[in-house]
Amino acid sequence: MRVTAALMRKVGEPLRIETVELDDPGPREVLVRTSAAGVCHSDLHFVEGLYPTKLPIVLGHESAGVVAKVGRDVRYVAAGDHVITCLSVFCGSCEYCLSGKPSLCTRTGLNREPGQKPRISQNGAEVQQFANLSSYADHMLIHENGLVKIRKDMPLDRAALIGCGVTTGVGAVHRTAKVEPGSSVAVIGCGGIGLSCINGAAIAGAGQIIAIDTVGSKLNLAKLFGATHVIDATKGDVVKQVREITDQGVDYAFEAIGLKKTAEDAFRMLRPGGAATVIGMIPVGVNIELHGPEFLREKKIQGSNMGSNRFRIDMPRYVEFYLAGKLKLDEMISQRIKLEQINEAFATMKTGEVARSVIMF
Description:
Blueprint lengths: L1 E7 L7 E7 L6 E11 L1 H7 L9 E2 L3 E9 L11 E4 L9 H4 L21 E3 L2 E2 L1 E2 L9 E5 L3 E4 L5 H22 L6 E5 L3 H13 L3 E6 L2 H10 L3 E4 L5 H9 L3 E6 L4 H9 L1 E9 L21 E4 L7 H13 L9 E5 L4 H10 L4 E5 L1
Helix pairs in contact: 3-4, 3-8
């Protein structure tokens, strides 16, 4: 079938709205009519060439929609079901899946074999599928293990945010770091993922939640999401300011930007025994420098992939959190746009003034 998509043809150039073709669903594939897709900073990293990828490609990975058609062996969903997609597609049989870490899945057997017709093409030539999804298009053709069925009274524009940013941020708090009630938390960067960290820390019962950013409007948002303290990073050493609030430093720090300096600051602001979790996508080739003696104080630094999620368990729970008023999604959407406005959304993102733009189909 012919679909409209935002196609990336060259690094550093604007995405182009073009028509591509999707194949019919294979035995375990699902055709989803995209309802909403969040504009995530991760996509911008690929547009700017900070992470390499084959071209041409349809980007986009934070989405929700309605099942249009399923392959012959699909039993989990049926046409008309509402779903959230997730880039951490799982095979269900590798070592990571079988040990309860599906976000680290090797993804064996989830893509079409060489020689088979590609899922996405244009004039007979293959178009790359981003993160097994490619949601900057009005339809997606994905493996059934890349989606989760949700209740139909959940608004799909809000549900789309759960597909990446919310799961990444809340999951980093609940699953990767396992924040304890009453503990102290610092979050560097108050975009969509950072705000989700703050929200997740509040749900986890953290005692002090310190939000750090350079944009005043984002710090104001952070208070709505549960921050007990805010720090303007333009006004001095953030590590010193965190220590003034907490005495020895925080139990948990989260870096949600993807920069060398902020990753190092996250580690430096820990109290003895604390843990820093780097969520941001630090560019390829960038090295982080830490002071060795600090490790003698049992401080640690770790990464987090998509919040260490088990998304078919986690995402329905996040839907329930939202419907119960615990998870703040309405406040995260800065603007709703059309697919044709995708490049303007990236430009706005780079100003740092928005939490999330959502494409509505």
